[in-house]
Amino acid sequence: MKAEVCMDRLVPWALARSIWASAMQLHAAMGKEPKMDLLPSLHADGIVLFGSSGLAFSDNSLIGATQKGWAVPRLMNFMASPFTALRALQVIISISKIHRFKEIGRLQAEVILRSGLEATVTYMNFHPYCQELFFNEVGATFGIGFRDEGPIWKISWNSVESWQVSDYLNDEELFGELLFTDYDSAISCSVGMLSHLIAAGSGKILLAGRIPLLDKFGYASRIAQKEVPQP
Amino acid sequence: MKRKQSDHWFERAGKVIPGGIYGHVAPVAGLPRSFPHYCDRASGCRFWDLDGNEWLDFMCGFGAILHGYLNPVVEEAVSRQRERGSVFNQPSTLMVELAERMTEAIDFGQWAVFAKNGSDLTTWAIRVAREKTGREFVIKAKGAYHGVDAWCDPGLGGRIPADRERILEFEWNDFDQLSDLVIQNRDRVAAVILTPYHHAAFGPSVMPVEGFWQEVERLCKEEGIALVLDDVRTGGRLHDFGSHRFFGFTPDLAIYSKALGNGYAISACLGADDFKVAATDVFLTGSCWNDALAMAAALASLDLSYKGGVAEQVMHLGDYFVSELEKVCQAGNLELKMSGPPSMPYPYIVGDDHLFQIQDFCKACALQGLYFHPHHNWFIGNSHTETDLNEALERVGLAVGKMMEIADLP
Question: What is the pTM of this model?
Fold first, then answer.
């Protein structure tokens, strides 16, 4: 059953989901099993907890951490299991470094893109206008990836989690496909530095299939980009 | 296909124009890396892009060209007027002549007003309907395009809920649904606005079912609702004297644009007599809306249509083209079908629910110099000859043969 997220917690929730997705992607890209699951959960009094690590932030601290690069986690949770909390913090710091890394490579593109996809999907699930846009698209599946290898992820709907990002398995039926020509374009699009219209016109992103569906996705991603702070 | 210049100008555009190119001609709306971004010149049914590639065209300026690019009769009329000027402090007498010509030709039309775009007058027409009826609600078909204004535009941004609070929608051809909406909102519906047939983008066109228009007309009359015909895209291509004649019904208000000026920006709204007072009370203006060049073009364009029976001619040409095109594709094991009226056919491939194949087909055709749009109805123009159509068919044969090779192209 999909959790309910009220509008005033949507930004920290999207941020927390993005961090979790980035961590998963970082481990996958390095061919490692994640040592801990940072799957976030929302708690009362504006607290976001990352898995069972003991790492927790207030909503405001989490947003501050993204904007300023640092924030103090909740000491009460931290002290309960300091070692796992510290490890979780290290993972988050390494994600943050990837976002700030000047060199562009596959790892950076995958992590940043995956982070952006998760924030967008969170908005598709909880932002009222995005929900309205995708109301008639339930059942659709579309792929995201790179030109040379095709879709890596798919965005699809299921009755448990609503819209979700998952790995694309070959030969799954897609309603649409969005592929980036190179890693630079993927990163630029993910952080809102490249106009989608210009990117499509210049061939930096390649769209195929049901364009209006991809257009809605793009619009949802731009709403998320506007609202969710980026490192 | 060369595209160096096209890309160069697009890059320049991106720095000073949001999105580089926007709207229905934005690259993303078509085939971004197959179609050129910019045109250089056009003549008849062909155009040349900035890189010198020649295209056999089937979009006719998205319908704005009915008599061919640079039609000599239309251009001559415009040249004559250009010597006298285009926009003045007062309208030219061409405005009166154009209103007379259109009200003589279009049977229900007792008066006419002019603007520049279809949107200018679809929006104005529903305001006239509200003024006349004193009611608020407007009913339209789901997915139908009536312009760029907030009550109906297909975009996603810049909306507030209030924009569409008074707009109700029903599924095209579902008369019972329309009737239910009217009954649920009895005495609150000002207008039903519809296109002559359903020509939404990204899906096959749907003709009205037998008796649909007559039922709609009856319902509107019984309930005191204005029946507004959006003939912007279709005007002149189904029937020379208005698409309502093609389907056998009578609207209260109808809007024409696209082909009216054969490439010169002009739109017209014609109305029944009992809407004339309301029309005078709904403000309408634009500094360039009295543009005499566009009115000269419209008069010349209408003359060509009225004297030449152009709608029937493009329908006949379209009929030939559509049936031969389907055969050529079938010979290449491609189940291409054309929907809608043959003068404005919309393509789809059987079983291609998510449009990948039609996009590949149009990309393959683009490599043969054919401008076939994968998501919008095409237009057959008065300048297409059977020779042009046969040339296109031959190129389609080549394209279908090569389709597999281009499936991986961007």
Answer: 0.94
